[in-house]
Amino acid sequence: MGRWEPNARERLQRSALALFAERGYDSTTAAGIAEGAGLGKSTFFRHFADKREVLFDGQEQLNEALVAAIAAAPAEAGPYEVIGLALDAMGAFFGPERLEWARQRQAVVQAHSELRERELLKIASLTEAFAGSLRARGLGATAAGVAAELGGLAFRAAFAGWIAPDNALGFPEVARRELAAVREAAASLD
Amino acid sequence: MGRWEPNARERLQRSALALFAERGYDSTTAAGIAEGAGLGKSTFFRHFADKREVLFDGQEQLNEALVAAIAAAPAEAGPYEVIGLALDAMGAFFGPERLEWARQRQAVVQAHSELRERELLKIASLTEAFAGSLRARGLGATAAGVAAELGGLAFRAAFAGWIAPDNALGFPEVARRELAAVREAAASLD
């Protein structure tokens, strides 16, 4: 184990994004990312498995926060209320200090099919966490599946709305607005 | 261009599945697939870009059938009715003669993370086709997004139900049953 490097993880993330944006994802190496952060290559690999993982850091913690929020929701809360509480909890990962990072990250991911594919896997894992937690509360499998898809949709819309250039609201506010729109749209289909 | 090989495409698909199941996906090569089908390697590459594509053949045609069915739906049809017509049209790709292939294919895809990831991309492209076609009918963006997610969910449930070992129904019947369940579940959330 090497010596402790203050904020190494965050420095590596910032360096990676700057290089991905400047040179392109394919032309950037783990060693280059480490160098850009003023760190050694071995420090990079203590924090991330490869350069792709720099962009998908925090996935498990996000899913865990969602699962914990759903487990802690009041027994009498309906599915949409539970989804709203889960989105609130996820807001802890999307504070104002992460906004610029999130915007740059999204631009890199959208520009690369391999990264878009990985992003879909991330969303699928989030939706599965939603569905599993709702089933654990006693919701039927189909209802949990539907609620999870709608929760995932609200999350994606909230994320897109939060990083939009003209947005001034915090993630939880955008998420509540998007969830209300999804709920209204779902009711309007029938 | 080589000489015409009767049913080469189908023979290659059957050979690929047999080898994926027997030797595993990673240990199977395009040349081995061609050999198993009694064909040359160049014939394989006239039909498929690589061994992965053998499993994802027909994706574009499936999306086109969905888009055409939605465009042809009566103007007065509601979103769920339109989704039902799209699922009916997709049934043309899932006839009884494809059932055994679909079962074997699913087992191979589920066993391999790279293939599961590619499958998610396929589902995302299907959902996008749903949403785009519904927007083209004048449905609002959020409602089209919600309907597309629910249509995609019904499709996945229909596919899983159709290939289930104890299922004796055709794809369109399973799809109608699953769509009704999704519709009922969506209404029950509120």
From TrEMBL, chains A, B:
GO molecular function, a single term: transcription cis-regulatory region binding
InterPro entries reported for this sequence: Homeodomain-like_sf (IPR009057), HTH-type_TetR-like_transc_reg (IPR050109), HTH_TetR (IPR001647)
One Pfam family hit: TetR_N
DNA-binding region(s) in UniProt: 29-48
Keywords: DNA-binding, Transcription, Transcription regulation
Keyword DNA-binding found: yes
UniProt domain HTH tetR-type: residue ranges: 6-66
Top-level taxon in the UniProt lineage: Bacteria
Record flagged with keyword Methyltransferase: no
Protein name (Swiss-Prot/TrEMBL): TetR family transcriptional regulator
